[in-house]
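not sure who needs this but someone in the group chat was asking about DUF899 domain-containing protein from Nannocystis radixulma so here u go. i didnt clean anything up, its just raw.
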Amino acid sequence: MTTTNEVTREAWLVARKELLAREKQFTREHDALSAARRALPRVRIDKPYVFAGPDGERTLLELFAGKRQLVVYHFMFDPSWEAGCKSCSYVCDHLSGTVPHLAARDTALVAVSRAPLAKLAAFKARMGWTFPWLSSGGSEFNYDFHVSFDPADVAAQAVDYNYTTQAFPNTEAPGMSVFLRDGEAVFHTYSTYGRGVEALMGTYAILDMTPLGRQEEGLEFSMAWVRHHDRYPAE
């Protein structure tokens, strides 16, 4: 690769300090945005959602595992599919190591999909993940949180996703939802979709600091390069 913007160390340091000022401004704005997110109002969850897990059925309250906060990753896995979504798998490759750190801050993390538990368990074993993953196939949870859609709505290009009515290519979509427990009362505090889940993807954060970046220009869609981590070509 030919370097077209080579400069002296002194000139590089000037440019780097200019960028640092912008990075610090971005960090302050990010902190302010996070504070605004924490200040969002809350919605009490009264519907009795039930999830299938390896130890039997669990309610939404039980997914907290005694913690005050619960983070749910909405993993795209239609009941008819034989494997989980590649992009969601890319997200979840980053999650297992976060579970004990989140627990230290009174927060539980689980993944939830509509596929039956046996398929989730088999795919989880293949991927080597250790975070809890439960099936919501027996409830309306995915539909109520706008990550699963009626095929008729998909065909009509009119699904309710990311807080708007839009076209979407699948009956399943990615997202993340956050819940807060007050005693036995459960409240929904936040959900994010689309690129909002990039906060969970440390690989992107690393690539964004490199000169070549994500290298997604010209692809059919941004994450077309992503594979299940056991399906990349051998080096």
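also The first helix runs from residue 9 to 38. if thats useful
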